[in-house]
């Protein structure tokens, strides 16, 4: 028990955001619609890759160990492209944040998008802020139960669609949809759809702003990307204060700022903060308070943008009566931009140059070598040829590095090795060196595999083992 | 007057128990914790009903699901067998030569052959057919009884000097020394001659003396030039591979009192598909013939 009866955790105060219209609300709706459409529809885009290949444009095929993105096919060992994408995403986030503040949090974060959608459902079913507060205060009744059940039902349906769409990125979408409802999908598929249904429902329906305030690490360190030129949702304190009701100011003839303390900016806020207290962790920068305040300022004929989307330096200029200066090109934005450019160009370059042929050569551990009748030395290897093209490949194999080295391939001819399309050919390779030609111990050799159709070459270093003398 | 059931300092209720003026605070278990406990108890009852649970003196309660882990293992094994069965039947229907010519079957046979080899053959021939003293290396190009697929298959099926197999490969090398067929000098001379076949004789005069002894006693099986004879399993004596060692004393020992290896027959122990896979695998180790 903490001293003085204080608690470890703050009580949860339920937020009832009020409906608002305006510029930022429209932007949020547009982005929400776009992102949700992308999320739900992308698994349904078809892409013809020929026979024996999935025709889904974006697919991570775990069982087949391939990832498909339109014309790009990724093998497991090429997963570093994912690392590149994550680096791009991180620098993109840093860049956008240093330039425009918390646009990720306010507009594009999945938590924000789905919470926004769930809140809209809540408004349709239970009404706006006051109606919802009233409904929650009422005792249980048939009407209340119907409304609550309807809301949670719709939420669960959206959550199910969300979880289902997630699984569709990992399996053929039409097949999965059919199997899912006929009970023929795999156990894991039901588990994952259930998992993402549950998380969507809980995070967007119940946890909401708690996720941003308590769970998410991003708000805690993104201030490191801000400087005084970063665009932020901010309150023009210099002309808003002293705040007070319009009528009282007129009656008492006291100095009066533009803020009439109507509280609308707090009531519309999805995380329940008061932006007039300045920058704070819980503010996700969505700009709905800007819409709210502008609607009030317009009614009482005061200049708009008392709460505004502006840089702190520009605000300081306005407060001092100077024309505001905005600087978008700053060392940090330039650095982030150059990083994005460098990683992006690097990825494009490697992607366009990437090999579609790979070779792995595994030397036998036992025996390391055998002595032949004529005193020659033979080594055994497992040769794997990865034909990453969607057409049958014919390859030739040459080995260099020791005088008189001979190649024997079990079950194949080393000048014409056939490997099926998009497949790995596994062969047993024997290398023979005449008596006296192999130096004591291990010697470096080079294995060169050539695709006879397009001339692509893969060169692999290996060792040849001989007895220690 | 303070409430006797409420602690003054914390304001919490007490249990009413008091020892030496110290009253115990009433801090019951959290409700959620109790509910979880009750739920676990209910769950365990259900568990007893459907799964094996209580032992009796001679048996145990079987549970409604009739589950037991031994049956589950048998089921998994049967499923694995069923998954392999179409491959195994294809292996069964094809000759070893056809298996080696089909890349798909070859891959399956190599994997199946490796598993069977490690279980059954590696104790003597070592992993990868590396061999041990007295047990031939299978990864080289010397084949005492022949290195074609058919030869290897025959050897695996019927073994070498296997006691209970009429078709086994069998020969005996006479015990020249202890049976008194050759005296010590003769053994020494013929040894020098045998070593001279691979250019390693130390005593040229003795080697020349041994030539006639070799022609009289050894050439019938090992061939006039010592190149060996597969039909009798008589090894080639002109190459660099020595099953029982190529030092002079080792060759003398082999002439004096020969060791002759025994390999069991595998027909009846392994099914024909597994023997075929083993054949293909062994043939691939050193390239076969």
Automatic annotation (TrEMBL), chain A:
Keyword Repeat: no
InterPro entries assigned to the protein according to its UniProt record, in alphabetical order: 4Fe4S_Fe-S-bd, 4Fe4S_Fe_S_CS, Cyt_c_oxidase_cbb3_FixG, Electron_Trans/Redox, FixG_C, Ig-like_fold
UniProt GO MF annotations: 4 iron, 4 sulfur cluster binding; metal ion binding
Gene Ontology CC: one annotated term: plasma membrane
Top-rank taxon: Bacteria
Keywords on record: 4Fe-4S, Electron transport, Iron, Iron-sulfur, Membrane, Metal-binding, Transmembrane, Transmembrane helix, Transport
Membrane-crossing segments per the record: 29-47, 79-100, 153-170, 190-207, 334-352
Annotated ranges, domain 4Fe-4S ferredoxin-type: 248-279, 283-303
Residue ranges that the Swiss-Prot or TrEMBL entry lists as coiled coil: none
PROSITE patterns xref list: 4FE4S_FER_1 (PS00198), 4FE4S_FER_2 (PS51379)
The protein, known as: Cytochrome c oxidase accessory protein FixG
Phylogenetic classification of the source organism: Bacteria, Pseudomonadati, Pseudomonadota, Alphaproteobacteria, Rhodospirillales
From TrEMBL, chain B:
Pfam families: Cytochrom_C, Cytochrome_CBB3, FixP_N
GO cellular component: plasma membrane
Record's signal peptide: none
Cellular compartment(s): Cell inner membrane
Key words of the record: Cell inner membrane, Cell membrane, Electron transport, Heme, Hydrogen ion transport, Ion transport, Iron, Membrane, Metal-binding, Oxidoreductase, Repeat, Respiratory chain, Transmembrane, Transmembrane helix, Transport
Transmembrane segments: 32-54
Pathway the protein takes part in: Energy metabolism; oxidative phosphorylation
Identification of the protein by name: Cbb3-type cytochrome c oxidase subunit
A GO molecular-function descriptor: oxidoreductase activity
Binding site residues for heme c 2: 173, 218, 221-222
InterPro entries to which the protein is assigned, alphabetical: CcoP_N, CcoP_N_sf, Cyt_c-like_dom, Cyt_c-like_dom_sf, Cyt_C_IC, Cyt_c_oxidase_cbb3_su3, Cytochrome_c_Oxidase_Subunit
Record domain Cytochrome c: where: 108-198, 205-286
Natural source organism: Dongia mobilis
One GO process term, biological-process aspect: proton transmembrane transport
Keyword Repeat: yes
Family statement: Belongs to the CcoP / FixP family.
PANTHER family assigned: CBB3-TYPE CYTOCHROME C OXIDASE SUBUNIT FIXP
């Amino acid at each position: 028990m903490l001293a003085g009866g204080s608690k470890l955790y703050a009580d949860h105060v339920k937020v009832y955001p009020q409906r608002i219209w305006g510029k930022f609300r429209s932007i949020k709706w547009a982005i929400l619609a776009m992102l949700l459409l992308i999320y739900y529809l992308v698994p349904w885009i078809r892409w013809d890759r020929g026979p024996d290949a999935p025709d889904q444009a974006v697919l991570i095929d775990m069982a087949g160990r391939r990832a498909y993105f339109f014309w790009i096919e990724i093998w497991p060992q090429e997963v570093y492209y994912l690392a590149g994408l994550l680096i791009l995403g991180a620098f993109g986030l840093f860049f956008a944040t240093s330039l425009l503040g918390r646009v990720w949090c306010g507009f594009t974060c999945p938590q924000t998008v789905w919470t926004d959608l769930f809140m809209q459902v809540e408004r349709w079913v239970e009404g706006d802020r006051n109606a919802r507060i009233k409904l929650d205060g009422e005792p249980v009744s048939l009407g209340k139960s119907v409304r609550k059940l309807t809301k949670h039902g719709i939420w669960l349906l959206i959550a199910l669609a969300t979880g289902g769409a997630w699984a569709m990125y990992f399996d053929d979408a039409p097949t999965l949809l059919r199997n899912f409802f006929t009970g023929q999908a795999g156990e894991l598929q039901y588990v994952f759809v259930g998992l993402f249904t549950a998380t969507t429902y809980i995070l967007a329906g119940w946890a909401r702003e708690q996720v941003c305030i308590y769970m998410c690490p991003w708000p805690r360190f993104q201030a490191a990307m801000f400087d005084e030129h970063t665009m932020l949702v901010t309150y023009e304190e210099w002309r808003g204060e002293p705040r007070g009701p319009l009528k009282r100011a007129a009656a008492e003839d006291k100095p009066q700022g533009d803020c009439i303390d109507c509280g609308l900016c707090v009531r519309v806020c999805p995380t329940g903060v008061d932006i007039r207290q300045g920058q704070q962790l819980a503010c996700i920068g969505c700009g709905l308070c800007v819409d709210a305040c502008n609607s009030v300022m317009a009614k009482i004929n005061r200049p708009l943008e008392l709460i505004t989307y502006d840089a702190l330096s520009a605000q300081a200029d306005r407060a001092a009566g100077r024309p505001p200066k905005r600087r978008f090109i700053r060392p940090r934005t330039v650095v982030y931009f150059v990083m994005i450019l460098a990683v992006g160009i690097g990825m494009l370059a490697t992607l366009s140059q990437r090999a579609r042929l790979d070779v792995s050569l595994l030397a036998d551990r036992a025996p390391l070598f055998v002595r032949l009748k004529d005193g020659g030395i033979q080594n055994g290897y497992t040769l794997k040829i990865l034909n990453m093209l969607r057409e049958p490949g014919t390859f030739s194999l040459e080995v260099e590095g020791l005088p008189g080295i001979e190649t024997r391939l079990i079950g194949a001819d080393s000048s014409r090795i056939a490997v099926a399309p998009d497949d790995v050919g596994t062969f047993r390779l024997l290398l023979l060196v005449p008596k006296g030609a192999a130096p004591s111990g291990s010697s470096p050799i080079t294995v060169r595999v050539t695709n006879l159709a397009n001339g692509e070459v893969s060169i692999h270093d290996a060792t040849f083992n001989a007895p220690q003398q | 007057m303070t409430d006797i059931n409420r602690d003054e300092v914390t304001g919490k209720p007490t249990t009413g128990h008091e020892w030496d003026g110290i009253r115990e605070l009433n801090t019951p278990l959290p409700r959620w914790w109790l509910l979880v406990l009750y739920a676990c108890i209910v769950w365990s009852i259900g568990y007893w009903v459907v799964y094996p649970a209580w032992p009796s003196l001679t048996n145990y309660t079987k549970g409604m699901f009739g589950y037991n882990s031994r049956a589950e293992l048998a089921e998994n094994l049967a499923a694995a067998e069923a998954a392999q069965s179409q491959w195994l039947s294809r292996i069964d229907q094809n000759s070893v030569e056809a298996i080696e010519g089909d890349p798909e079957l070859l891959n399956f046979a190599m994997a199946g052959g490796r598993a069977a080899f490690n279980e059954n053959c590696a104790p003597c021939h070592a992993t990868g057919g590396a061999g041990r003293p007295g047990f031939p290396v299978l990864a080289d190009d010397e084949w005492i009884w022949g290195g074609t697929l058919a030869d290897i298959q025959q050897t695996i099926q019927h073994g070498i000097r296997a006691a209970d197999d009429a078709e086994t490969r069998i020969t005996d090398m006479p015990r020249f020394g202890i049976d008194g067929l050759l005296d010590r000098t003769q053994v020494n001379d013929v040894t020098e001659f045998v070593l001279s076949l691979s250019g390693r004789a130390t005593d040229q005069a003795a080697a020349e003396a041994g030539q006639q002894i070799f022609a009289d006693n050894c050439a019938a099986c090992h061939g006039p030039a010592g190149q060996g004879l597969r039909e009798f399993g008589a090894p080639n004596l002109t190459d660099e591979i020595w099953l029982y060692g190529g030092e002079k004393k080792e060759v003398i020992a082999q002439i004096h009192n020969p060791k002759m290896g025994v390999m069991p027959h595998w027909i009846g122990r392994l099914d024909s598909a597994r023997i075929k896979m083993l054949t293909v695998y062994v043939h691939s180790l050193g390239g076969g013939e």
